Write the structure tokens for this entry.
Amino acid sequence: MVNQLVIENLKHRPVRTGLSILAIAFSVTLVLTIVGLSDGMLEESRDRARGAGADIVFRSPTASFGTGGGSAPLNQKLVPFLETQPHITMAAGVLIHSLQFPNSLHGIDLERSSRMAGGLRFIDGGPFQQESDIIVDEYYAREKKLKVGSKVALLNRDWTVRGIVESGKLGRMFVQLPVLQDLTSNPGRITQIYLKVDQPSNIAAVVADLKAKQPDYGVNTMEEVLSFFSADKIPQLGIFINVIVGISVAIGFVFVFLSMYTAVLERTREIGILKALGASPGFIVGILLRESLLLAFLGAITGIAFSFGTRYLFLAMIPASMQQKISPEWWPKALLIAMAGALLGTLYPGLKAAKQDAIEALSYD
Amino acid sequence: MTEQMVEIKGLTKLYRQGDVEVSALRGVDLQIAKGEFVAIVGPSGSGKSTLFNILGGLTPPTAGTVRLAGRDLLALSEGERTNLRKKTVGFVFQKYNLLPTLTAKENIDIARYIAGVNGETDAQFQETLKFLGLSSRLNHKPRAMSGGEQQRVAIARAIVNHPALLLADEPTGNLDTENSSLVLDLLRDLNRRLHQTIVMITHNPEAAAYADRIVHMRDGRIEPQPALL
């Protein structure tokens, strides 16, 4: 019976109900999109690092494992040296030059890098032919609407797209290593070196050996590197997400507060009627709470549906820059966030309704 | 000996309006027997609405004795007065006061729900619904019903929990002559068929004439009955 009253009350004011649901949905979508973006971009970076096909990453101890680089602290002569070390079957140096976030340009030895990664798979076009050639992945090509033969302006230079490869290996844009070294005034310098080991069981021993021989460098297994691509390892990201959650609760609170406050004002006489029928203050508050929780639930469901929409938009419009992951583990949290905002927003209007004098309420026009 | 449904002695009610204390009832004495249909008439400000609100447990008395179905209303807490409204008293208002979002049936059902009554309505109430002429209108919302129909739904809601006392405040105030007669006939029939005790407040002498007894109020007091010749 009460549920019927709650549903009918919400149906009675469809515009206000719809707006409240949309507002809650907006806050839920905001949270799910931000979380989905952070998870998606980290996951995508992790997949690309894994896609390098290396077992060990050799780098400067101060270098970060972000999506880009920007510095070239290593001497390229380390590559042949490392290849002579026991159990190391292949080494490939890469120069990573940061561009506009989150993209970076990778200077590679195409033959080596491709061999290590199990081969870059060309969707269209092929390997470098000229110094001004660039190879891009499918996401970057789609975002920038590039085809083989298209021109791309990067680092004050026009590049010709020579090939489009499947995404998920190393980076999104590749040029020849010497060309990038020359352009960035880093002749003979690289950002990091990927190492391939003969047997997985030898990885730990090789890492230990390299650390002993080259104590001034960072040597990590690929598994260690991949573990850095996690939200837990980026404290600022956690703070950022918490701020977004707080904003979402606030948005939900404000809209539900306004919705319930006007509902209580509009329904003054109805509240009086219920009181005349013997409804307790708890009963009145209960109706409002159920209404707001139903709004929160519908808002959360709508917000979850919208998050699929934002994912589609990112994928369709800027697949190379933003990757949103659908994170079902956040759905219950999003529902709780919506409900927290709704319950806070109902608190004052609910108490106002509960305290309403029945006689005054019944004479309200 | 006649069983009394309402016993009022020396009832006073003071209101505070800003810094001024207003005396709405000034020592009211009144007895209403079980099964009696009483009309309370009087001009605006005579205190009849205050008496209605006190009898309905909507506001507490200031002093005096008010016994309703054997319970002393002066001693009741806010929660106990809420409970009184659930089952002991039924209200019929001038403006019908139906919940606009619910159908006629749901408006009746919610009174039962609040009173903690579950299941189907009893045979006597089903009979009453037919008698009220509502059987075919139960699934309509108030906006789709005439004033007379809405008031009949309000009466059905008021008696669904078999209250000891039915309070009606200007029940015909918003109705045309035909519907007024219909509603008043229904109230009188309820009183006669079900022995429902009814207290009706009205300005209208024609409506008051339907009652067994008319009580006149003026300036917060009950006026003495004119001596019978």
